[in-house]
Amino acid sequence: MATVKGTVKWFNSRKGFGFINSEEGTDIFVHYTALSGRDDEYKTLNENDKVEFEIVEGQKGPQASNVVVTEKAPPNPYNSGGKRDFRF
User: Fold this and answer.
1) What's the confidence (pLDDT) of residue 41?
2) What pLDDT shows up at residue 3?
3) Which CATH number fits domain 4-71: 1.10.340.30, 2.40.50.140, 2.60.40.10, 3.30.300.30?
4) Which of 2, 11, 67, 80 could serve as a FRET partner for 43 with CA atoms 20 to 30 Å apart?
5) Percentage of the chain with pLDDT > 90?
6) For position 2, what pLDDT does the model report?
7) How far is CA 13 from CA 4, 6, 25, 73, in A?
8) What is the CA radius of gyration of the chain?
9) What does the domain layout of the chain look like in residue ranges?
10) Below-50 pLDDT ranges, the chain
């Protein structure tokens, strides 16, 4: 399978899903189970993270698989799946 590059459009860490905008301009569904990493670590994505992934056919259409973050974006406290970070 070919690897595709994209940028995280949004990801709700509370619900465990979101969308990646592929370089081709298509929005691809992503579920937290598709994120690469150790099984015992908390898996999430931040808006604007740069990622590489494969596209597989899911129940409702194309979805991301084997997602690897290649460049992390700074976290956005106003788009964190309901979790707010109000440190001053």
Assistant:
1) 73
2) 94
3) 2.40.50.140
4) 2
5) 69
6) 85
7) 22, 18, 23, 15
8) 13
9) 4-71
10) 82, 84-86, 88
User: Which residues make Cβ contacts (< 8 Å) with residue 59, sequence separation at least 6?
Assistant: none
Going by C-alpha positions, the residue among 35, 36, 37, 17 that lies closest to residue 27 is 17
Encode burial over 24-46: b for 16+ CB neighbours within 10 A, e otherwise: eeeebbbbbebbeeeeeeebbbb
Record the tokens describing residue 50, joined without a space: 């740069």
HSE of 22, CA atoms in CB hemisphere, 13 A? 17
Judged by phi (left if over 0) then psi (alpha if -120 to 50, else beta), residue 2 lies in beta
Chain centroid, CA 11 distance in Å: 6
pTM of the model: 0.79
